[in-house]
Amino acid sequence: MFTKITEQSSLHDDLDKKSVAELLTEMNEEDQKVAIAVKSAIPQITKLVEQIVPRMKQGGRIFYMGAGTSGRLGVLDASEIPPTFGMPPTLVVGLIAGGDHALRNPVEKAEDDPDKSWKELLDHNINELDTVIGIAASGTTPYVIGALRHARENGILTASITMNPDSPVAAEAEIPIEAIVGPEFVTGSTRLKSGTAQKLICNMITTTTMIQLGRVKGNKMVNMQLSNAKLVDRGTRMIVEELGLEYEDAKRLLLLHGSVKKACDAYRGE
Length: 270
Hints:
This protein has helices spanning 20-39, 42-57, 68-85, 116-123, 142-153, 168-172, 193-212, 229-243, 247-257, 260-267; strands at residues 62-66, 92-96, 131-136, 157-162, 175-178. By secondary structure, the protein is an alpha/beta fold. Helix 1 packs across helix 7, helix 8 (229-243) packs across helix 9 (247-257) and helix 9 crosses helix 10 (260-267). The longest helix has 20 residues, at 20-39.
């Protein structure tokens, strides 16, 4: 039987009568449960990434699908891939019920249409090399269910990220990822522990995928975009460390070639 743990009453009561320090301490106690819950999901996350990587090597993409906080977190993770790893913005795409307007504003009933999400995926020419990952704390969002159902029917790899066990969303996914974080500190407010768990899992999926695709060397972001002075300085110091050049020479090389990897390859004549 499907139970919405995310909607169960908080383990903490009389919040309005507590001091700031008490509230923060109790929130922190709850947050410490998140990493443990995510750890239990590592086997499923591993299974997903190991299937994503060969697809992306052939030109496949990742599509995050979600509504509300879940949708925003998918868009956030997708938006970080180009600057961090130097990849095109078309390779990891976040779609949210209600469109980009919903990133800042609630869009009434946007998540209730199970067919809208598939239409949006068709607009992106979804194909069998792609992966659709549905994000839904509750595990009941029709927008996400529809995306996964249609994608799976069309031979596309599907996964889900949910915070309730045995949910309708998980039932639609080939690889269900469940991080059971328990009741929220403020009853039903899944922007808290559930949102944190979702963010951690998205980080894990895309970061390990990008590492497997060769976008990291050692432990460094050698393909990051040089979008500000801080990142130019970081990249310069990477080259200094890698090639033993003087700082200014390394900086000129970096700015000439546009990334740490390209600069090092060019210097070595590769």
